[in-house]
């Protein structure tokens, strides 16, 4: 279930730390936290978010298979080759809940396994934000993407509303780039330089979802998604409807099609995303 950023802004949390333009300098946030989310007018309690500490250089992220991300020079030559895959929620944050004990946090983890396989078949390296029933903070999840070069970010959700058997892709609406006195992009504006690229990626994936799942929109939609706002990479949220089904098998049946659409959409987007050789350049 998607997280609207409205309450986040209402609380006036200011993040004066950070992000280098374009793909950003590598770092990992140490903050932890949990939150639930809402979309389409259906809401659930939102835990307060922590302000991340000052950025610190991070070691290359390790994938589930134990391999590390490629060095920046190789990534700059190769362009897009990493997908940071985020199964939403986890831990005590169950996300949307349906009848019969269906929890969003469990379903998206199962979907992620199939999405990962499909992405790897397209030649992508996959970095997953959580492997089991953990709950990294929003900032930790974004930081995993921001620590990469040549990456995109895909967060998976199950809706509590919407027509069953449909899928939607959300991207952040355009927002002005905010910088501090040193010229660094503020943490909560990290997505601003990537908005147009995120839209291209989102449209690619949504078009393929529409072909597979009748009733799905033809193009990506915009929404104030908290997880996307702080991600310095092309970023999309994929939301499947709906957790409120009589039989979970209805959702499980969608997983192969969703995985194929995400993988093929990312592959089609790949030639349009030229990773800057200099981290200070805009994408």
**CATH level 1 class label:** Alpha Beta
Helix content range of the residues, please?
25-40%
Q: Structural class of the helices, strands and pairings?
A: alpha/beta
Low-confidence stretches: 3-77
Annotation field: number of helices: 8
By CATH, the superfamily comes out as Zn-dependent exopeptidases
User: How many E-type strands?
Assistant: 8
**Average pLDDT:** 77
Mind telling me the C-alpha Rg?
Answer: 17 Å
Trace the largest sheet across and list its strands: 3-2-4-8-5-7
Q: Biggest sheet: strands, sense, closure? A: 6 strands, mixed
Count of distinct structural domains: 1
User: Beta-strand level of the residues, as a percent range?
Assistant: 5-15%
CATH topology name, in short, is: Aminopeptidase
CATH level-two architecture: 3-Layer(aba) Sandwich
Helix/strand order, N-terminal first: HEHEHEHEEEHEHEHH
CA-to-CA gap between the ends? Answer: 29 Å
The dominant shape is globular
Characterization of this structure:
The chain is α/β, with parallel strands linked by helices and 283 residues long. It has one domain (6-11, 73-272): Aminopeptidase. The protein is 28% helix and 12% strand. It has eight helices and eight strands. It has helices at 6-10, 72-78, 104-121, 138-146, 195-212, 226-229, 249-252, 255-269, and strands at residues 18-19, 82-87, 125-128, 151-158, 167-171, 185-186, 221-222, 235-240. The strands form two sheets. A six-stranded mixed beta sheet has the order 3-2-4-8-5-7, with helices on both faces. Helix 3 (104-121) links the parallel strand 2 (82-87) and strand 3 (125-128). Helix 3 (104-121) packs across helix 8 (255-269) and helix 5 (195-212) packs across helix 8 (255-269). The longest helix has 18 residues, at 104-121. The radius of gyration is 17 Å and the shape is globular. Residues 3-77 have low confidence and may be disordered.
């Amino acid at each position: 279930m998607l997280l609207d950023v409205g309450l986040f802004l209402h609380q006036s949390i200011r993040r004066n730390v950070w992000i280098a333009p374009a793909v950003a300098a590598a770092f990992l946030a140490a903050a932890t936290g949990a939150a639930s989310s809402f979309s389409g007018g259906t809401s659930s309690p939102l835990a307060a978010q922590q302000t991340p500490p000052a950025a610190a250089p991070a070691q290359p992220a390790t994938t589930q298979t134990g391999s590390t991300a490629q060095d920046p020079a190789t990534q700059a030559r190769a362009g897009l080759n990493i997908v940071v895959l985020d199964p939403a929620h986890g831990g005590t944050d169950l996300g949307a809940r349906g009848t019969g004990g269906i929890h969003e946090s469990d379903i998206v983890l199962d979907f992620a396994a199939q999405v990962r396989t499909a992405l790897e078949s397209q030649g992508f390296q996959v970095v997953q934000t959580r492997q089991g029933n953990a709950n990294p903070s929003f900032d930790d999840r974004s930081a995993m993407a921001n620590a990469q070069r040549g990456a995109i970010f895909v967060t998976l959700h199950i809706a509590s509303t919407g027509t069953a058997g449909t899928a939607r892709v959300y991207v952040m609406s355009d927002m002005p780039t905010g910088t501090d006195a040193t010229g660094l992009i503020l943490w909560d504006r990290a997505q601003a330089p990537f908005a147009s690229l995120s839209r291209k990626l989102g449209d690619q994936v949504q078009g393929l979802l529409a072909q597979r799942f009748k009733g799905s929109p033809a193009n990506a939609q915009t929404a104030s998604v908290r997880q996307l706002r702080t991600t310095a990479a092309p970023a999309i949220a994929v939301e499947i409807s709906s957790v409120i089904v009589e039989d979970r098998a209805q959702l499980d049946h969608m997983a192969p099609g969703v995985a194929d659409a995400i993988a093929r959409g990312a592959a089609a987007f790949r030639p349009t995303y030229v990773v800057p050789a200099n981290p200070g350049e805009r994408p």
